């Protein structure tokens, strides 16, 4: 039986699979045209869609309002924090913040005829003569039968504070007010006074 002759012995060249496929692939993905056409042939320089997605990649570039790109890692400028009401000048704080808040808080405790004033005057303390005047918040109701005074000798809510109260013509006493607090806030000034008046049994059903 004669041996079969292969393509090399017969002087023939075996058809290349690449040669067969290349024209088809090239023609399908890169047709001859004078206009640019997008293809689905992957390239080494194409960006990874996930890497370019700012939602999944914090380092991806983000477009700015003017169309330019900036790194996502750049920190946005912090918004300036609004100043606290306690940072207002002393007189403004008392008149604009403390007195309205105090009026509301005491009214909620059942006192409807409260009169509040802010004045610089002498200490109304029996047996304690003084010619020096201090800024104070003065509150009275029941036709002046009940009165309290909150003193600010340093003209600073963070400084020394005092309290006194009197009912009718009985002499009042002077005591320290909120001396154990590191920082005095509007809420603390209101709460502290309401608590003190409650202990005096002047609010609510007292």
Automatic annotation (TrEMBL):
Query: Positions of the region Disordered?
Result: 1-85
List the Pfam families hit by this protein, alphabetically: DUF2996 (PF11210)
Transmembrane regions listed in the UniProt entry: none
| Record's compositionally biased regions (Low complexity) | 42-75
InterPro entries the record matches: DUF2996
Please name the PANTHER family in this protein's record: DUF2996 FAMILY PROTEIN
For this entry, the protein name equals: DUF2996 domain-containing protein
């Amino acid at each position: 039986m004669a041996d079969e002759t292969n393509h090399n012995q017969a002087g023939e060249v075996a058809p290349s699979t690449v040669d067969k496929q290349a024209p088809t692939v090239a023609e399908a993905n890169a047709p001859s045209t004078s206009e640019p056409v997008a293809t689905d042939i992957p390239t080494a320089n194409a960006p990874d869609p996930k890497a370019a997605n700012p939602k999944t990649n914090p380092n991806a570039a983000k477009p700015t309002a003017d169309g330019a790109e900036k790194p996502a890692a750049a920190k946005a400028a912090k918004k300036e924090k609004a100043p606290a009401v306690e940072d207002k000048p002393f007189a403004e704080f008392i008149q604009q913040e403390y007195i309205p808040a105090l009026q509301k808080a005491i009214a909620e405790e059942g006192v409807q005829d409260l009169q509040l004033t802010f004045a610089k005057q002498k200490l109304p303390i029996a047996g304690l003569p003084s010619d020096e005047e201090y800024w104070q918040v003065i509150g009275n109701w029941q036709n002046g039968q009940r009165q309290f005074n909150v003193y600010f000798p340093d003209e600073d809510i963070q400084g020394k504070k005092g309290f006194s109260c009197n009912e009718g013509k009985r002499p009042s006493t002077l005591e320290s007010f909120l001396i154990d607090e590191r920082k005095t806030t509007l809420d603390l000034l209101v709460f502290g006074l309401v608590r003190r008046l409650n202990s005096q049994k002047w609010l609510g059903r007292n």
